[in-house]
Amino acid sequence: MIVIQDREVRSLGLKPKDFIDSVRHCFVHKPECQLPPKISLHPKGDDFINTMPCLLPPETNRYGVKIVSRVKGRTPALKSDSMLYDVTTGELLAVIDCDYITTMRTGAVAALAVDTLKKNNVKKIALMGLGNTGRATMMCLSSLLPPPDGKYEVSLLKYKDQAEQFIEHFKNLDNFHFTIANDTKELFENADVIISCITQANGLFIDDVNVFKPGVLVVPVHTRGFQNCDTIFDKVVCDDIGHVKGFKYFNQFKNLTELGDILRGDKPGRQSEEERIIDYNIGLGLHDAYICSKVYDAVKAQPHENIELVHSTQKYII
């Protein structure tokens, strides 16, 4: 067994495109995997501990499980670790710091959903929640979206000095220019795409659903704050139906479709420029396990310290 630290994951030099290609591959090959819904436990308040298992496609002979937690007051609040196993022997291959992988694959999934479900001639992208996930989403969007006529406007929700820091961080992007909105109404107005990377919300972000114009795509990365869209939007897209069955308005979703079905061409995606779509990607352990498997192969090819777990080989241990 090896332990793969964050610095080793980053040293591989993975690009946004690498994460996008990986999550796209996983969506397309999801039917070949065993992927039960994540188990979510809530110790107190908005804190959570999620367990995300996945059996990868048979040819990989690998199984992965990720544990991700959010603890208020911790820095960072979100942390995750993954374990990767060899299915043929049951051997634990690696324990992997999954913070960077989780953040980048989350941004990659959001960007892939935008590219797949957006209408033509997008002008304004609204983005709220400008922490690590928001930055990862912007990185992946910038590598995925084709150059427009002119530039995309990315409107950022003002919060402390995060918007200004975000603009400074991405000031060299050629295809985007940034504006700052003072409230959600200003942010959402005339937006063609709305992306929320806010990790917690008490209630709805906005009550007036008329602010969501025809053709809008809403991507709530952490699923909060847009439940008033659930029953009125023309289509609901998700990464896995089993993961959204517990949603309050699940039985009222219109045209519920998995993103993988669209990417495989099994079901239609956007069917008109007027269609309003909301996309719920809850987060699949499949993405984490697949990327961790690739990371393991890359790191294992280099000299690395092995840690031996010595289990009993006796049939009876009592």
TrEMBL record:
Annotated signal peptide: none
Pfam family name, one: OCD_Mu_crystall
InterPro entries: NAD(P)-bd_dom_sf (IPR036291), ODC_Mu_crystall (IPR003462), ODC_N (IPR023401)
Domain of life (superkingdom): Bacteria
Name of the protein in its database record: Ornithine cyclodeaminase
Organism: Hallella faecis
